[in-house]
Amino acid sequence: MSTVLDQHGWLQIYGRNEWRSVTPLGPKMTSLPVKKVFAHHSVTADTGVDEATFFANVKTIEKIGLQRFGRASYSFVLDRHLYRVAQMQGGNVGAHTGGHNSTAIGICTIGNFADGPYNEVEVNDVAITMARFLSWAIEHGVVDPAFELKPHNAVKATACPGVIADRLPWIREQAVNSVFGDSSYWRQWDAAPRPTPPAPPPPTPEPPTPTEGMTIRDVELYLTGIDAQIETLGRGLATAHSVIAGHTDQLGDLESDAAQGRRELTAILQDVTGHSASLAAIKKELSQLNRVTDEDIASAMVRLLGD
Ligand SMILES: [Zn+2]
Fold first, then answer.
1. pLDDT tens-digit profile of 103-149?
2. DSSP string of 219-230?
3. What's the 227 CA to ligand 1 centre distance in angstroms?
4. 131, 147 contact by CB (below 8 A)
5. pTM, entire model
6. Can you say whether the dihedral through the CA atoms of 138, 37, 222, 7 is positive or negative?
């Protein structure tokens, strides 16, 4: 987990390994930062506050994506409790907003904000979580500061994301202001009663950095790149195996053809040997016939012409 602290409070970001994603990454997005973000709600139940429940809720959403699209569908899943965010596809192409998946990210908040149940305080928490996450995403090069924030139902006939759609202008403004100015709104919302965030964990050793001066974001991108390379190499290896298997089959066929050819050649050579023997016999007979004929002719001539 990467815990991001700013002057406004908390944002807790969980990588795919932490919530134990079991689905593959999509192809890399064509370019980051994105200029469009689509807001979604999961429609699945928001079943609790503790971390295990959060992970279970994220995995439920992953399972739905796996069934429908073969992989986790959203870019990030947001949990209004304790401002938590689970990375799904991150900077890779998801399957959240038809026609926009390779150019936009889809952020999905856990819960049903169309049919409910929800209340005003919960919607406020969702808005704060989204704003904090988008602020982080701007600072980390995932989202362009001049981004558009749209509800899913702006491009599809759907109830998604319910009443959260009404909050998007405010969310976008807060996200941008936390980078380029102060936000008194967050302090105001922070004063509202909510579950107490846990104490910040002690600093954990960062992964070994390939070079000095790299940021955590650089390392994350570096590791994501390595993951993608490993996936590509894996696909290449599978292709090579199947090509080799094909060639092995062909080699087997060629070997069997060659053996058949050798058998046929041996038979032909035997025939030729037999024919040669026959030819020699015929020549010998011919030669004898020739000799007999010459003598016969000579004696016949002698007889014919008289002495
Ligand atoms: Zn949606």
1. 999 999 999 999 988 999 999 999 999 998 998 888 888 999 999 99
2. HHHHHHHHHHHH
3. 28
4. no
5. 0.59
6. positive
